[in-house]
């Protein structure tokens, strides 16, 4: 788990967007200065922590042959059988780290805390800088209303700067009307064809369009990749406010909503269905899940 007491936690100055300087400043944050070969992961569905890679992994044994290094003898097995066996190891291969930052329209929203899109960009930048500090390859897919920008995994600083710039541009670009945003399943299919087996894949999204098809696809991906899913929601998505007439404004548009007991029930049921589809993935080996809310998450302290 990250220990951040050594320096102040950078917090985006604005609720609805993140600046280039703020994304760049994360390279000085303690998690990005992790010891070599440490990786960032999700633990217990709530926080990010480190997992240390081992370099060499025990694989099997075979009977001792002249010339074998005696340091690799399996002394316990020899004590049980009376015969000499040599431990065999396989080198733990580098695993590319990849993130999918969902910055589509539904992510640019929050009634409390910071926009879901801000949290997704912030967490993605953490993955970029931490992976680069570890000397591993990092790549990303950044989904916006205009489409997806895909960056193949690489381990040089230029790659990190391009990813950071793309995250920032997703907030600074002007959005046009009536865009046909591709479903999350479509983007995951593109990633599945790109990434080598054994890659680590982070997905930062509200999973607003999750369905049985997406769930089944993630289950298949879990057989090839280590999936670290972060579902980001706003408290309003889980429960509507008290009965009454409400008006939501933003980006020159407004929506009026009449809250009735029937609407509250339908709304809560729809969110629970979405949550159940995502949480079912936790039963699969190699899948970790965290559920963050816009005002309750482990990235930085809220005032």
Describe the structure.
The chain has helices spanning 20-25, 75-81, 116-133, 157-172, 184-194, 212-221, 235-238, 261-279, and strands spanning 38-43, 47-52, 56-63, 85-91, 97-102, 138-144, 147-154, 200-205, 226-233, 244-250, 253-259, 287-293. The strands form four sheets. The protein has a six-stranded mixed β-sheet with strand order 7-6-5-8-9-12, with helices on both faces. A two-stranded antiparallel sheet has the order 1-2. The chain has a two-stranded antiparallel ribbon with strand order 3-4. The chain has eight helices and twelve strands. It is of the alpha/beta class. 30% of the residues lie in helices and 27% in strands. Residues 1-6 and 34-55 have low confidence and may be disordered. Helix 3 (116-133) runs antiparallel to helix 4 and helix 5 (184-194) runs parallel beside helix 6. The chain has two domains: 20-52 and 94-233 and 289-293, Rossmann fold (3-Layer(aba) Sandwich), CATH 3.40.50; 56-91, no CATH class.
